[in-house]
Design a protein that fits this description.
Distance between the termini: 27 Å
Number of strands: 2
Mean pLDDT: 90
Strand content: 5-15%
Low-confidence stretches: none
Largest sheet: 2 strands, parallel
Protein backbone atom coordinates (compact mmCIF):
# COMPACT_ATOMS: atom_id res chain seq x y z
CA UNK A 1 0.00 0.00 0.00
CA UNK A 2 2.69 2.50 0.96
CA UNK A 3 4.52 2.20 -2.38
CA UNK A 4 1.27 2.93 -4.26
CA UNK A 5 0.47 5.82 -1.91
CA UNK A 6 3.87 7.42 -2.54
CA UNK A 7 3.53 6.86 -6.30
CA UNK A 8 0.28 8.81 -6.09
CA UNK A 9 2.25 11.67 -4.54
CA UNK A 10 4.69 11.69 -7.45
CA UNK A 11 7.52 9.45 -6.27
CA UNK A 12 9.08 6.50 -8.07
CA UNK A 13 8.70 3.58 -5.70
CA UNK A 14 9.27 -0.11 -5.27
CA UNK A 15 8.85 -2.45 -2.34
CA UNK A 16 10.52 -5.59 -1.10
CA UNK A 17 10.43 -7.82 1.94
CA UNK A 18 13.22 -8.93 4.22
CA UNK A 19 11.82 -12.38 5.00
CA UNK A 20 12.86 -15.22 2.73
CA UNK A 21 9.19 -16.02 2.03
CA UNK A 22 8.50 -12.43 0.89
CA UNK A 23 6.76 -12.01 -2.46
CA UNK A 24 9.72 -9.92 -3.64
CA UNK A 25 12.80 -10.55 -1.51
CA UNK A 26 15.30 -7.74 -0.99
CA UNK A 27 18.50 -7.68 -2.99
CA UNK A 28 21.46 -5.35 -3.22
CA UNK A 29 20.13 -4.29 -6.64
CA UNK A 30 16.99 -2.93 -4.93
CA UNK A 31 19.13 -1.02 -2.44
CA UNK A 32 21.33 0.41 -5.19
CA UNK A 33 18.25 1.63 -7.13
CA UNK A 34 16.75 3.49 -4.18
CA UNK A 35 17.55 7.00 -3.05
CA UNK A 36 15.58 6.48 0.16
CA UNK A 37 14.93 3.33 2.18
CA UNK A 38 11.73 3.30 4.26
CA UNK A 39 11.32 0.95 7.21
CA UNK A 40 7.67 0.79 8.28
CA UNK A 41 8.34 -0.60 11.74
CA UNK A 42 11.16 -1.39 14.11
CA UNK A 43 10.91 -5.15 13.57
CA UNK A 44 11.81 -4.66 9.91
CA UNK A 45 14.65 -2.24 10.68
CA UNK A 46 16.06 -4.64 13.28
CA UNK A 47 15.73 -7.59 10.89
CA UNK A 48 17.36 -5.86 7.94
CA UNK A 49 20.01 -8.17 6.47
CA UNK A 50 23.44 -6.98 7.63
CA UNK A 51 24.97 -8.06 4.32
CA UNK A 52 23.01 -5.34 2.51
CA UNK A 53 25.14 -2.25 1.98
CA UNK A 54 23.14 0.93 2.49
CA UNK A 55 26.00 3.31 1.83
CA UNK A 56 24.81 6.88 2.22
CA UNK A 57 21.14 6.18 1.47
CA UNK A 58 18.59 8.33 3.24
CA UNK A 59 16.82 6.17 5.82
CA UNK A 60 13.27 6.88 6.95
CA UNK A 61 11.99 4.84 9.88
CA UNK A 62 8.35 5.01 10.85
CA UNK A 63 6.55 2.72 13.26
CA UNK A 64 3.20 1.33 12.17
CA UNK A 65 2.24 -2.14 13.33
CA UNK A 66 0.07 -3.87 10.74
CA UNK A 67 -0.50 -7.08 12.68
CA UNK A 68 -4.09 -7.35 13.97
CA UNK A 69 -3.05 -9.96 16.54
CA UNK A 70 -0.80 -7.33 18.14
CA UNK A 71 -3.01 -4.26 17.68
CA UNK A 72 -6.61 -5.34 18.26
CA UNK A 73 -7.98 -5.92 21.77
CA UNK A 74 -9.14 -9.43 20.75
CA UNK A 75 -5.53 -10.28 19.73
CA UNK A 76 -6.68 -12.50 16.87
CA UNK A 77 -5.36 -12.98 13.37
CA UNK A 78 -7.55 -11.89 10.49
CA UNK A 79 -7.81 -13.14 6.94
CA UNK A 80 -9.35 -12.06 3.65
CA UNK A 81 -11.85 -9.21 3.76
CA UNK A 82 -11.54 -8.80 7.53
CA UNK A 83 -7.77 -8.35 7.23
CA UNK A 84 -8.18 -5.79 4.42
CA UNK A 85 -10.82 -3.89 6.40
CA UNK A 86 -8.42 -3.78 9.37
CA UNK A 87 -5.65 -2.44 7.13
CA UNK A 88 -7.87 0.27 5.64
CA UNK A 89 -9.26 1.37 9.00
CA UNK A 90 -6.26 1.07 11.32
CA UNK A 91 -3.06 0.81 9.31
CA UNK A 92 -3.33 2.94 6.16
CA UNK A 93 -4.23 6.19 7.97
CA UNK A 94 -1.26 5.74 10.34
CA UNK A 95 1.09 5.02 7.45
CA UNK A 96 -0.07 8.15 5.64
CA UNK A 97 0.19 10.34 8.71
CA UNK A 98 3.72 9.22 9.52
CA UNK A 99 5.11 9.11 5.97
CA UNK A 100 3.69 12.51 5.00
CA UNK A 101 6.17 14.12 7.41
CA UNK A 102 9.00 12.94 5.16
CA UNK A 103 7.52 13.06 1.66
CA UNK A 104 5.61 16.12 0.46
CA UNK A 105 3.52 16.01 -2.71
CA UNK A 106 5.78 16.40 -5.74
CA UNK A 107 3.23 16.15 -8.53
CA UNK A 108 0.92 19.00 -7.60
CA UNK A 109 -0.81 20.62 -10.55
CA UNK A 110 0.01 24.24 -11.15
Amino acid sequence: YLAAYLKGKGYQTDFVGIKTKAEIHISQQHINWADVIVFVHKVIRDGFPPAMRLGKKRIVSIDVDDRPEKVLPARKQLEGDAWLAFQKKHVYPKLELQIDRYFPVVNATQ
